[in-house]
Amino acid sequence: MSEEMWDVAIVGYGPVGAALANLLGAGGVRTLVLEREGAAYHLPRAVHFDDEVMRIFQSMGLAEAMLPVTHVSPGTHFVDGRGRLLLDWSRSPDVGPQGWNVSYRFHQPELEAVLRRGVERWPSVTLRSRAEVFALEPGADAVGLRFEDLSNGRIGRVSARYVVGCDGARSLVRRWIGEPMEDLGFHERWLVLDAMLRRPRPDLGDHTVQHCDPNRPATYVRGTGNRRRWEIALRPEDDLTPLAQPEGAWPLLSRWITPEDATIERSAIYTFHSTVARRWREGRLLLAGDSAHQTPPFLGQGMCAGLRDAANLAWKLARVLQGSAPEALLDSYGSERAPHVEGYIREAVRIGGLINTKAMEAVVSSDVLRGGEAARLVPVRPALGPGLSAGWAGPAGRLLSQPRLSDGTLLDDRVGLRFAAVMRPRLAAALPNEMLDRLSARGAVLVADAAPAVGAMLDEAGAEAVLLRPDRHVFGAARDAAEMRVLAEAL
């Protein structure tokens, strides 16, 4: 097999690898995906994504295709062992500030099918399935990848200027980087049961329910259609052998459903971990998704974090490969993403601790929750870590709301995967043409729109203008024409 050269090789074709392939494909980056399996995994795994992730799908042109395979979630209730509501984390059924609902449920094989069909749009992306990468050969200008074609046992070799490991918790790419995972201290065994209802059970409800019962903590998740999930904590004395089989799990499910109500589609024992890599890049090797971090599932942010990785990394790789940015730009990927994902992991660990009734009572009475008959959880959205900024850096690294423009178009649909200079009309009118021309020449879409939602977004930033990155985080802001000039020069 003759050797080929690619701009980027992605190892792994789960949701993160497929998302990265879509984003790189949209930028015309020559991308090879190497995936060990012949098809996407057919059973449920991840079940939640949020409005920020839907915005990433929007940037790929796939949000409308995702909507039919999702269910809008009303949020989460935390109840004690007797079913009393302790904490209410309900989410509005209305579209939120990001332009989408705050919380979605999905069936992962259906989500992956949408992503994979999306990849087929891009002629610059090639998928090679049944290809198991077993060795990497980093060089000064490229990385060699050796793989076995599992369909015939032949050994192949390709080269790529950059390799991204989207290859999961046992990542080969991470092992070649030599980066151990930092342990954030949470390790628990849980039984995950995916069931299909045989008959209606409206009493189970649409809310996710966290059963904060110290005798047997559990989580109930309403999925799409008739899909329902239970995650049940395991005790040291539990016999795991029968629990790994669907029929052996019925005793633990009996408080909610019986075999007359549902069939168990999948029974799996997981050890939930909380880990994060401190080094996400070594030369031409990079990590994304579970290869760089693992989180307990209590916030539903595992897959979300990996998709944010892809959105952060894709535009940086594209600019470096196009020669419009130095390779050092890639150093900002890990410096921004590692603290951000660690913030979510630590919050998930904290929420996981609320399954103990005494811990819940302490949190309910604390000042981070707002009272009522049941306390209400204040959502956490960590900021990006230190990285890119220019102009006035006050809001740099923040994700602002997505406004709807005067013609009814959502901002991201107008901008696409490009920079956006969003300005109040009065500032735009005062700027010299040469400054506006420079912004346009460097790839920024100029948006000077009088829509109230645009003004509200700029009010969030406390600025007259913001320069948004292709991943929609703030690159920098301007409060006057002088700061706008600095922004234009930085781009």
Automatic annotation (TrEMBL):
Protein name in the entry: Bifunctional 3-(3-hydroxy-phenyl)propionate/3-hydroxycinnamic acid hydroxylase
Annotated Pfam families: FAD_binding_3
Highest rank taxon of the organism: Bacteria
Domain FAD-binding: 7-347
PANTHER family xrefs: 3-(3-HYDROXY-PHENYL)PROPIONATE/3-HYDROXYCINNAMIC ACID HYDROXYLASE, FAD-BINDING MONOOXYGENASE
Key words of the record: Oxidoreductase
Protein species of origin: Muricoccus vinaceus
